[in-house]
Every structure is written in C-alpha cells, then in structure tokens.
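Case study: MBL fold metallo-hydrolase.
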Amino acid sequence: MQVKRIPVGFNKTNCYLIKLVDTDGLLVDPGGEGDKIIKEINNMDISIKKIILTHGHFDHIAALAYLRDSLQAEVYIHKLDSEMLVDPSKNLSSSFGSDIETVPADHLLKDGDMINGFKIIHTPGHTPGGICLYHKEEGILFSGDTIFAMGVGRTDFPGSSTKDLQNSIEQIKNNLPVETVIYPGHGPQTVLEDFMNYYG
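Here is what the predicted structure looks like once written out:
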C-alpha cells in the first residue's frame, strides 16, 4: 500500500491518495485544488472510484464535486455529517465568506463498516459524524480532524462536543496498537505512541 499526502486549500488540509492493489486507489478528503489532486492521481497511475470523507467541513470537501464528476467516483461519508455536503451553514463555508454546496453522498457510513480493508471508526467530537479509517494489517489510521501530531480537533464549532471528542480519543488509545501510524487531516504524520505521550 502506498500513501500520498497532498496539502490543499487555504487551510493546508491533507488530502490523501491511497494506492491499493495494482491501479486501484482511494481518495480521502479532497479539500481543494482539484487539478492538483488530478495531477497526482495521474502521476501515481491509479484509478479512483471511491472518495471517502472523514467529516463534512468545507476545507475537507471543497473539491468534491469537481473530482466526483472528473473521476466518476462515488462519495462516502458518515450519515450524521451527510447534510454538510449540501448546506453551507453546516459545513461552515458560509462563516468563512463562501457558500460551498457540493454533491450529496452516494453511501452513508456507520461505525464498523469496511471499505477495501479499512474499518470505519465513528469518532464524533469535532463533528457529529467524524470518522477515522483504520487498516489493521497495514497498521495505519487516517484520523481526519480527530487527532493531530500535536493536538486534537477543535470543539468550538456548531455540532462539536468536547466530551464526545475525548471519548473518541480514548477509544483510539484503548483499541489500537501504539505503533499505529496516524495520517491526520492537517500537519505531519505521527504514531499513536507519540500522540499519547504528547496528549496524555
């Protein structure tokens, strides 16, 4: 498995390309700069038919409509964040001076679902429908805005919950191996042990 991190948009959101077997791949969080993402897809020589969103905030979905149409891919998001895709007030874009309405999801996720070997872990807190993607065999976790190398997701947005975020973090700490490699929604990758040493 090959992972390519592509920082995109004003907030340097981490968009990820995941090369699976042969030319099959997954796209996680297309937060902007669709042409840049397409270029990297071509460079990696992969076929993207699934776009997975860790949550519905605008800085993680801004290029979704363009890429869904360009790639003829299907969109996956947790059911509790699905309305964010078509509501600028809920995806927060209207609060930042733009109204981003993108495409509705093709598939609504729930905790425990599997996508190409990745287990969906529902991690509410930053948003009600935030998810992480965990691949046990590869020992990797795409954490969205739940946890970062040196911090955790904000909980001062509408729909956020500090208590839920704390519970989600405990779920990750208690159930994943400490050597798990974490690919967050912003900033550099880390490993769970280092995050635990930082966060406590």
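For the exam, be able to explain this: The mean pLDDT is 94.
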